[in-house]
Write a structure and sequence with these properties.
This protein is mainly beta. The chain is built from one helix and eleven strands. The strands form two sheets. Strands 2, 4, 5, 6, 9, 10 and 11 form a seven-stranded mixed beta sheet that branches. The termini are far apart.
Length: about 130
């Protein structure tokens, strides 16, 4: 079992930055692939970024490449999403997620994402 709690969301003007954090408890964080997803009102939840067990490989959806950076600190049981150059279309609830090899495979295939655990989300609002 893993419990995930996100923080760091807020209201930011376009062009600003936020650092989202995900604190994990339960099992050792290094056992999981970690990811960030987001969901805007009336929209499907979409993949944003992921990082493998050791932090040596990262994955991003095209719309955030060059602007967002995912990182992890297994010793602190923390995962981060640094969001720069924010745009109004980035407005959404951002969810931290943990999974295994199926999740990573789905991300690589860009279909059928399969996290095992979800956080409750943190709101990011970007004003024009």
């Amino acid at each position: 079992q893993v419990q995930l709690v996100e923080s760091g969301g807020g209201l930011v003007q376009a062009g600003g930055s936020l650092r989202l954090s995900c604190a994990a408890s339960g099992r050792t964080l290094s056992s999981y692939v970690m990811g960030w997803f987001r969901q805007a009102p009336g929209k499907e939840r979409e993949f944003v970024a992921a990082i493998n067990w050791s932090g040596t490989s990262t994955y991003y959806t095209d719309s955030v490449k060059g602007r967002f950076t995912i990182s992890r600190d297994n010793a602190k049981n923390m995962v981060y999403l640094q969001t720069n150059s924010l745009k109004p279309e980035d407005t959404a609830v951002y969810y931290c997620a943990a999974g295994g090899s199926r999740m990573l495979a789905a991300i690589r295939q860009k279909s059928g994402y399969h996290p095992d655990y979800w956080g409750q989300g943190t709101q990011v609002t970007v004003s024009p």
